[in-house]
Design goal:
Blueprint lengths: L3 H23 L2 H8 L2 E2 L6 E2 L2 H11 L15
Antiparallel strand pairs: 1-2
Length: 76
């Protein structure tokens, strides 16, 4: 077991490297932006972050289509 200490050091170094890579990968702006888009237009499938924007989109892009029930009480 002459290389036992070196093996342990190598394992610790690799664990630290893996943790750093996981931490760096976890904070992704694109993923966070995608998670914020919660409302999806039923006509064109575009995504909006809040109901106000969704209602404005629906009224301007799809004026002939009936308003979805989830937008009935929303102030634009």
């Amino acid at each position: 077991m002459a290389r036992g200490h070196q093996k342990i050091q190598s394992q610790q170094k690799n664990a630290k490297k893996q943790a750093d890579m996981k931490k760096a990968k976890g904070h992704d702006q694109k993923t966070a932006a995608k998670a914020a888009l919660v409302f999806t237009c039923s006509v064109c499938k575009s995504q909006m972050p809040d109901p106000k924007t969704f209602k404005q989109h629906f009224e301007s892009k799809h004026p002939k289509s009936p308003l979805p029930p989830e937008l009935e009480g929303v102030e634009a």
